[in-house]
Amino acid sequence: MIYVATATKVDDRTPKDDASLLLECRQVAYEMAKTNNVKVIEKWHDTGFAGIKWLYNFRKRHPRLSLRTSEGCSLSRATSFNRHNVNMFYDKLHDVMMREPAFAYGTRV
Q1: Distance of CA 53 to CAs 50, 56, 80, 89, 104, Å?
Q2: I want to staple 40 with a disulfide (CB 3.0 to 4.6 A). Which of 44, 53, 67, 108 is the partner?
Q3: At 22, is the secondary structure helix, strand, or coil?
Q4: Distance CA 41, CA 51 (A)
């Protein structure tokens, strides 16, 4: 359930429509069942997705999850995400990581 909640939080640049979110949720459910050796019906193996009924029941069991369309990115945010600003961020991050010994190897970020 945690994956489904975070997967639906789509970044502002690539909005997903409801159908693709539902399809991705069904695909993840099938992959989780396959990984954990859960017995599923043969149709799931044929399609590579969980069934529609499974999805409806999942959504009934978890009513706090909802499908939302992401908002567009503001012009100021879109224009400030450029090479210069990104490089400045990583330079500052590098300085902080070198200054603090706990972050020296980048394993505790």
Answers
A1: 8, 5, 44, 46, 50
A2: 44
A3: helix
A4: 9
> 41 near 51, Cβ under 8 Å?
yes
pTM: 0.50
Angle between helix axes 18-35 and 52-61 (nearest 10 degrees) is: 90
Q: Cβ-count burial of 26 within 10 angstroms (0-12 exposed, 13-18 middle, 19+ buried)?
A: buried
Cα–Cα distance between 9 and 79 in angstroms, integer? 22
Taking residues 100-108, what's their average pLDDT? 67
**61-97 pLDDT, tens per residue?**
988 887 666 677 888 888 888 899 999 999 998 888 8
Q: For the chain, what percent of residues have pLDDT higher than 90?
A: 39
Domain boundaries, the chain: 1-71, 74-109
